[in-house]
Amino acid sequence: MKVALLTAYDPLGSKFGGSEISTLLLAKGMVSLGVEPHILTIPSHSRKASENIHGIHFHRIFTELKAFRLKGAPVSVILCSKIMAKKIHSIYLKTGFTVIDCQNRDTSISGVFASQRLKVPCILHIRDFWPVCLKGDLYPTLDEKCTPNSTYCIRCYALSGDAENSYLIRAAWSPFAYVHRILRKQIIQRATHFIAVSQFVKDILVKSGFSKDTISVVPNPVETLNDAKTRKNHSLAKRLLYIGVLREDKGALDLLPLMNRLWKFFPHLNLTIVGSGPLEHFLKRYFSRTKPRQVRFTGWLPYSQVNKEYAQADIVVLPFRRPEAFGRVLAEAMAAGKPVVSYKVGGVAEVVQDRVTGFLVDKGDINGLCDAVKRLVVDKSLRRRMGEAGRQACLKKYDPIQIAKQTLKIYDKIL
Known about the structure:
There is one protein chain. By secondary structure, the protein is an alpha/beta fold. The protein has 15 helices and 14 strands. It has helices spanning about 20-30, 65-70, 75-95, 110-120, 155-160, 165-190, 200-205, 255-265, 280-290, 305-310, 330-335, 350, 365-380, 380-395, 400-415, and strands spanning about 1-5, 35-40, 50-55, 55-60, 100, 120-125, 195, 215, 240-245, 270-275, 295-300, 315-320, 340-345, 360. The protein has an eight-stranded mixed β-sheet, with helices on both faces. It has a six-stranded parallel β-sheet with strand order 11-10-9-12-13-14, with helices on both faces. It is elongated. Residues about 135-165 have low confidence and may be disordered.
């Protein structure tokens, strides 16, 4: 079988996110099963336009994606997707793939167009909430009235726009965003099948008008490294780790009261913050006035270096304030054998088993968050037990080969 995996960012590029990591791991799993994956993505200055790496074929052809992301009018998005569909057709003539699998929202429309043109089944991987919310974020912290059943809230887009854009510009764009979202939903519902990364995401899609019979649940693949050099497990934990975009909805601000309370009991604790975002400057300024030597900011790191941060951490803390579709960072931490602490929101509860692989507390409960971290700091055996349980859970549930097998079963079902 030959499979076309469409992704908006190059998994081997200089910067990418969880979707691209999942795409690459899925492709690796497919190669192990004798399947020939073709990754169609955006051009990269540092990579060849076409290459074969360990059985994975890369085709860097989507030059239109840069224009696609300029927040142009819906008409330009459709035109870009039409051009991308023609390029997918050209790769089809060379490779003869039997399935199109769109890995993220920016390739979804072009994938559906190409599917209709080539008479080839099209799968859409849903790794966040983009079929429901234009930005894929479901901002409940900004507007408590925002629900999965909303047709689309123009005010939500105005509030959640980029900080550098004025309110008037965002408000003026909102009608176009509304049309874009409506058009996209109508188009993507023509896809053959959908793969949601959690039951939580599937439930939202069903509530929003998608047929439950066309949605399967397959989690993201997560790599478990056997050769990771993990630091010695001391009697008292010393290093906490946060990984993510430094935004309020990702829980970055919750680190402030959390660390202030923890330092009263454990003044030796160190915190490493991996990532960047709107709150980076504020967080750096705050911690520079409190514990400058005990908080380290790394900025954005390549995936290989992130694994080293997992290995050196004792506890991973990720207080997500918005519903997470899956919680990939939590799964990665568990795969590295680290206990995790988070809020119980969205698909997180499907990844973390409370009091077995980590602790889950109610959203916004700083006291509960602090108590959970304190238990792990002082209990060496608990950290080791939860870390090992998390690692075994990842080997069982998120192994790339197992995820590839589940995905191929869906392909076989629709072919």
